[in-house]
Amino acid sequence: MAQVLLIDDDPLFIAEQVRQAFPTDSVKVAANGADGIASFRSARPDVVLLDLQLPDCSGLDVYEELRALDARVPVIFVTIAKTADTAIEAMKRGAFNYVYKPIDLQQLQTTVQEAMDIALRMRAPVALQQSLPELCEDDTLFGTCPAMLEVYKAIGLVAHQDVTVLITGESGTGKELVARAIYQHSARSKAPYLALNCAAIPENLLESDLFGHEKGAFTGADRRRIGKFEQYSGGTIMLDEIGDMPLALQAKVLRLLQEQTFERMGGNETVRTDVRLIAATHRDLQGRVAEDKFRLDLYYRLGVFTIHLPPLRERGDDIALLAQHYVQRFSRQLGRSIRSVAAETMDRLCAYHWPGNIRELQNVLKQAVLRAQGVTLLPSFLPPLSDRRSTPPPPADPPPEVARRPAPASCDVERFVNERLITLDATDLYAQTRQYVDRFLLTATLERAQGNFRIAAGLLGISRQTMRGRLRALGISVGHSVELDEDA
Length: 488
Prior knowledge:
By secondary structure, the chain is an alpha/beta fold. Helices cover about 45% and strands about 15% of the residues. The strands form 6 sheets. The protein has a 5-stranded parallel sheet with strand order 2-1-3-4-5, sandwiched between helices. It has a 5-stranded parallel sheet with strand order 9-12-15-8-16. Strands 6-7 form a two-stranded parallel sheet. The longest helix is centred in the last third of the chain and has 20 residues, at about 430-450. About 35% of the residues are buried.
């Protein structure tokens, strides 16, 4: 449970609300800024809830003091002013988030949990181990194969150099662990760190999330928002799956890398920042460049220093090393007493081709530990595995003939996902599911709008340009579309 420090001059009402959201013994209360700073010094909390209006000083001044002591502790501001000018200023200085009084307990719990997740990533050390330690840590890069030794060497070479790093490798190989190891061994290790998955955020929200927006920039933008590049100035941001970033947004990222400046959506003010960017992708970026899906100039900017993570099937004896590690880890987590892995079990694990890499290995071994009886992991405890050895994983992008098939008559997402989870042969299930849903949604909406792009885009809540781009990406061609006069 997170240890929460509440700095607020209303010790009765606000403190009572916070204690409803979290166990009483996990919440410490300070009634003014001086006491809050002293409490922060004596016992470093996991998260700070800070009132913007304190009796002895400004909440922003207290925030600067806390940030000087440890910038990795996320600070969530509590404000009663709906104009949010000071809250926005706090976000510009690097605060994690802000909530309004009276406090919405569900929103508070969600915000604190998000802050804790990011704080754990900043603090949890990523160990680089060539052999299996007696006690296994959760966040460890193991390996003795030559390719992994090169990865360790590359991390050591680039960590202290304040340059952009591109991490490549198939899904599930541990790219986020490498990014965190670079951050933790860098000169910015005491500053904030954030990892964002570009493929997991809808296209129309990604730009706002990264660069922020001004009030009125689009429908629903009722106040200014500070983006992550501004909020995490001085720190490190990892953009995972950057190969899936829209082309229009790639241009803004390129400018950020070149000049460390940008404009918020809907604004003209040039914002200056200081962020180290680490990018990761499972895509073949050179191939994406050839297909006009990725900017060549951005590719060169990102590739100042590249680290490639090998797929698990090419790591030889590392499979056995990792298997021992995860069996120990899951046995401890699940309260089992497994002490060894049978030779036949290890043979099966080493012979498998692991299209899902380490993530799939974790999934298989967790299932096996749950099914296990006794102290030895037998082959019968393993879920079904293919007998193939070196079959490459399925391509990240569906072939043209698949992409051009007619849209399904119905959209059964649960069936679609379960079919792929059963076989455990998907390495990009998120992308596959998104394509499956988009194919049905876009074609059904266009049909309902009788081919009118403006009406269809309005129903979807996206721009016509975004819709056309998504149709092209899915390989869907529209033979005839009805457009209104203003479209011409």
